[in-house]
UniProtKB/TrEMBL annotation:
Name the record gives this protein: Transporter
PROSITE patterns: NA_NEUROTRAN_SYMP_3
Any Pfam family: SNF
One Gene Ontology cellular component: membrane
InterPro entries in the record: Na/ntran_symport, SNS_sf, YocR/YhdH-like
Entry keyword annotation includes Transmembrane helix: yes
Amino acid sequence: MMQNEQWSSKIGFILASAGSAIGLGAIWKLPYVTGNSGGGAFILLFLIFSLLIGFPLLLGEFIVGRSTGKEAISAYKTIAPKSRWHWIGYIGVFTCFLLLSFYSVIGGWIIKYLFASVTGGMPAEADGYVAFFNQSVGNPLEVIIFQAIFLIITIVVVARGVQQGIEQISKIMMPALFLLFIVLIVRSLTLEGAMAGVTFFLKPDFSSLTSESVLYAMGQSFFSLSVGVSVMVTYSSYLSKKESLLQPALSIVAMNLFISILAGLAIFPAVFSLGYEPEGGPGLLFIVLPSVFDQIVFGKVFLLLFLSLFLFATLTSAFSMLEIVVAALMSNKGKGRGRMAWLIGAAIFLVGIPSALSFSTLSEISIFGKSIFDSADFLVSNILMPIGALLISIFVSYKMKKDLLRSELIQGKKSLNLIFTVWFFLMRYVVPLVIIIVFLDAVGLI
């Protein structure tokens, strides 16, 4: 049975899908992971993985979803009935559930900063942001309250559905985020000593790369494009059969890479100019960007605007994570969208509490040398997403009929046959091989 939900336009689909990708992956996580992984060399690997692995996988998920018109679990069941391939969908649903549990913690941090900006609670001096961040994430009650607020907003939008909820808000907020980033970059690049940050961000230094850095780069390409978890299977199931898949996929990858570069150019020149360490970790964005705005005329106003847009960019990613779980359980259990969104959201909130408290009450708890928050992040980005991506690449290139793949991708346009051939080769041979090699290297087997 086809789903009732559908995007009202291709641009709505592109912006919502890009919003799923362009959130914390590009704006929050990429800068600090880059800082911890060698700068320009890491960025180069990230770009390569995004084009050779992320883009083909994105198209693969689009084909699975659009060809069946069903959410993740049901889509795999439809293509491969009486098999276990639908477990790819279950892995994706579980990964999104876990991802949103700690993702909502950072969303709560943004709301905390937004609240402080409105009420005048931000530090008066630039050197006060380190202490302010530590105080913000170290207050157990506050982080849980703001995490809950973030999830409530997410639930309300997803409960409204695709067109009235996810699509409407994405059309407004994503373009606005691009424009503000341009303003921020101009100011960041004009700070004294800014070029040292540009050099760090864009000039590759391969001597600083490790096998863990390579694994992180691959994981980041999955995280920032929302592939490997079947989110795009669900999103593309709402797309009309008349629409091209190639153009939206190219647009999403290009927008994601563009905003990733913009985020780096906004942050690293300021990091070096203001004397911060590029290995600043998860708090890098929350410490550096407010300091940059302090250097701008009407900086407090710009900070308030940026935090508002950053919150919406973060929310558009959260919508996709909650949507895949809601869509899957609605299909399996026949429950209403609104009720299911609230039930799942509540469960995600409870599971996310340990991550929220890993900077305060539970800070002494370590899992393989990582905090609860970092362990959840590592499990999702570097284990579950790559496993999901590997299984999806094998499923699409070996289990699905080649004629169906060709038909969905080129839609009768013979001029796209070469693109299909290259894409199919990447999906069948390059994507699985690269994922396997990086994993083997990371665990010391090669």
